[in-house]
Amino acid sequence: MTQEQLQELIARYLREECTAEERLRLQKWYEQRTAAEPIVWELHSEADLAQLKARMRTDIWERTALAAKPNSLSRRQLVYRVAASIALFCCLSAGLYFILRKDETSVAMASTTGSSGIRLTTATGEQVDVLSAAESTLASYGLQRREQDGKTLLKVLPGEANANTAPALLRTGAREQTVVELLDGSRVWLNATSELRYQRQGSLADLRQVSFSGEAFFEVKKDAMPFKVHAEDQVIEVLGTSFNLSSYTGLLECALLEGKVRIGDNTLKPGQLMRISAVEQHIQAFDIEEVTAWKKGYLQFQDAELASICAKLSKWYQVDIQVGISKPLEPLTGTLSLAASLEDNLEILEKISGIKINREGRTVRINN
Fold first, then answer.
1. CA dihedral 110, 116, 118, 122 (to 10 degrees)
2. Contact in structure between 225 and 206 (CB atoms under 8 Å)
3. pLDDT single digits (tens) 101-124
4. What is the DSSP string of 173-229?
5. What is the pLDDT of residue 40?
6. CB-based contacts of 204: which residues, under 8 Å, 6+ apart?
7. Is the CB of residue 319 less than 8 Å from the CB of residue 362?
8. Average pLDDT score over the chain
9. What is the pTM of this model?
């Protein structure tokens, strides 16, 4: 198959115009190509690439899963059977799949249908669409925008003297991620549906203090002045460190990768995660790849309950997922692509856990 024929076949596949024979032909090419063989993308965008990988994963999974005999296998055995069958695919795709894999590929998180984008609320209360605003307009509101590693990087600019000292607010919508560089040089990777309040003027203590909700990864620049994050009625105090913070109503999780973090009377060491809720407060070890996978474009989980996985999908896609399970399910282990559609990821969960899914608009009901 020539490059021209391959590109035409991929284009037809993405437009869902392929015959069953053509789909099988493309799947076999995808499984058999060598790791060193690039996918030629002169005619295709990063979004097309992510879509191809996600759909290939689903198609190959479906073909392999249906060939197995679910009635003679436990759910865990079925996962292992399929995993063995598509191991070659996972090694070659260098990206998005459902199987244990520690990949370093970044995935572009462009605006998608149904996304509310990235919005800035200025100190004076004005609303700005960060992704569509002209660079000069955005600069007048104290932000500089550029693309870096497939993500939007927003650099905070100093405020004018005697300007309004109220903090600015950045919000990410569904399926949106961005990186914010604060005035002190610290960086914050914001996950979808997250909020960050920050100052553009004031003392160093003011500039090294933010309020936050949602999920983010912080890389704090070292300085004698502590950096403080206010989240869920807690204050996370750091000097120079990197940590992942998940802060939603009634639950806060802080996972420390390096450096030192103090929360109340507790000081975390690298490799420790602190979980605080209304009913519990404890420190435990965590898996770095699992906690930070969202930065690379996927959701990774190990021995996780279906409800916890669905809670993360609900936040990413901004849908209401209601889990009503009458029979116990085995914990799930694997990876889901955040570049894939909600339907694709729900279909994978349906296949490996035997659940039944009913979707009505923005509400998804799951039972067994």
1. 170
2. no
3. 323 322 333 333 334 589 999 888
4. -TT--EEEE-TTS-EEEE-TT-EEEE-SSS-HHHHTEEEEEEEEEEEPPP-SSPEEE
5. 45
6. 184, 223, 225
7. yes
8. 78
9. 0.69
